[in-house]
Design goal:
Layout: E1 13-15, E2 18-21, E3 26-29, E4 32-33, H1 38-49, E5 55-56, H2 57-64, H3 72-87, E6 97-100, E7 104-107
Antiparallel strand pairs: 1-2, 2-3, 3-4, 5-7, 6-7
Helix pairs in contact: 1-3, 2-3
Length: about 110
């Protein structure tokens, strides 16, 4: 599975109106540059590198783990929620980051 550790090996990706530049740590939605934290960027890039495939919660945890007292499940949920608020038209009805029950999440390649 590809992950954030492969950032320097990758080129920029354009998925519909979502542009991700792993070298410049830049994300744009349309013409608007998004302000993502490093962990949000790494999570998004993990999903982008594996677009169309399920990224298991265990893989996501490697990105979002902070070593704090927040539970693992809650840390993942919080990070996905924050990312959805930034890249989804309606974060409560996500079209990009899809929940795969009991497994993890996947990034849909095409908006529907």
């Amino acid at each position: 599975m590809n992950g954030p550790d492969t950032l320097l090996k990758q080129e920029a990706v354009l998925l519909n109106d979502l542009y991700i530049d792993p070298i410049g740590y830049q994300v744009k939605l349309g013409k608007t540059e998004l302000d993502l934290t490093l962990k949000e960027f790494e999570l998004l890039y993990l999903l982008v590198c594996n677009r169309g495939k399920v990224v298991r919660r265990s893989e996501i945890l490697k990105v979002v783990a902070t070593g704090g007292k927040v539970t693992q499940a809650k840390a993942i949920n919080i990070m996905i929620c924050r990312l959805r608020k930034k890249i989804e038209v309606n974060p409560h009805r996500p079209k990009r980051i899809i929940t795969v029950s009991r497994l993890g999440y996947k990034l849909r390649e095409q908006n529907t």
